[in-house]
Design goal:
single chain; alpha/beta; Alpha-Beta Plaits; 3 domains; 7-stranded parallel sheet; 5-stranded parallel sheet; 16 strands; 32% helix; 20% strand; binds 1,4-dihydronicotinamide adenine dinucleotide; binds 2-oxo-3-(phosphonooxy)propanoic acid; oxidoreductase; EC 1.1.1.399; ACT_dom; ACT-like_dom_sf
Length: 390
Amino acid sequence: MYKVRTYNKIALSGLDRFPRQAYEVGSDIAHPDAFLLRSQKLQGIEVPQSLLAVARAGAGVNNVPVAEYGKLGIVVFNTPGANANAVKELVMAGMLLSSRAIVDSMNFVQSLGDLKDPAEMSPRVEKEKSRFAGNELKGKTLGIVGLGAIGSMVAEMALAMGMKVVGFDPVLSIDAAWRLSNEVSRMENLQSLLARSDYVSMHVPAVDGTRHMINNDTLAAIKSGAVLLNFARETIVDSAAVLQSLAAGRLGKYVCDFPEPCLLAHPQIIAMPHIGASTEESEENCAVMAANQLVDYLENGNIVNSVNFPTISMERSPGTSRIVFSNDNVSGVLGQVLSVLAENKVNVVDMMNKSRAELAFNIVDVETPPGDDVARAIGAVEHVIRVRVI
Ligand SMILES: NC(=O)C1=CN([C@@H]2O[C@H](COP(=O)(O)OP(=O)(O)OC[C@H]3O[C@@H](n4cnc5c(N)ncnc54)[C@H](O)[C@@H]3O)[C@@H](O)[C@H]2O)C=CC1
Ligand SMILES: O=C(O)C(=O)COP(=O)(O)O
């Protein structure tokens, strides 16, 4: 039986991917082989000895100690792009909410509940509606910081709304560049983007290099009256700097998905409770993708969409047993493991070895089932981190 411990609300369609006869799944599972979670913070949570893998049903992995887990041979997965459309649509809502007095005007209408005579309603509405005039998105410039799964979708949406789009992403992957519309103008630096944009939307991961990317210095470059949208992470924007820029009349509005006490009850701030990915569709996409990736890793040792281990996937050779092991990415380890197999007369049918930064992963299909002693001998090779026979 494989054991999967869940955190957070995981869509049933994802949980259904674990066949009941082979998996125990639940929030109180002891000795888990895997964790399946969303935003649960794992820093500070004890790492069970049994843990082989963590699947983050979502994009951001700042809630997982990715490097530390890698050193322990724990493979961390995420689900790239699975919730991007949900975030894109909320970014659009954020742009509209910041441009039209939607909430204030709705509240005004509700405040008219005391009017007894229906004939009084229309004159009141027509008299006061000028308080709620706004601006259109068409023709304005949107600056997108981070042009990955979400940023590229936001760009397409904005172009379709008749906006001009400029983007900044100095570490854009080749795949992401292929996805991007050629109508997005590339900015050489953040300051140039901020100086040109009427709306600025942040779509970068929360890593050391993006901490407080929006700060007093960068906000000094922002176009007067611009709207800043942060559906990425709290740490990317220095909230104190945002408050100062709003008070100084520079920044026009701040829309964010990460409320903090200092951001509440401010007329120029629209804050939401981290609901970017909270749609039925996105929750299902993420849960199904995360569960599929976990099953393939636990049962076959295949790794797809990991954030700490290399991508590696090998068809099972019929009638063989499979040994999978992780190791520090130093020379000679695979050779020593193959010597162990040769000494024990275990014949290799097929194998694959991939590395990523400090870590490597190997899949070896062998003719005869290796005994526990062979697995132990592989585990004893210097720099081997973890071994499984599956
Ligand atoms: N509000 C919410 O519920 C959600 C928030 N997110 C957040 O959005 C982030 C982005 O998500 P995806 O687009 O799916 O990820 P992604 O990995 O597809 O895209 C991130 C992009 O940021 C770029 N980037 C990295 N460092 C940069 C820098 N210093 N300057 C400019 N660009 C930089 C990367 O090259 C990449 O193209 C996630 O890491 C997560 O923190 C994601 C999903 C839901
Ligand atoms: O995928 C992400 O990075 C998110 O922020 C979504 O978080 P959630 O799964 O809704 O808790």
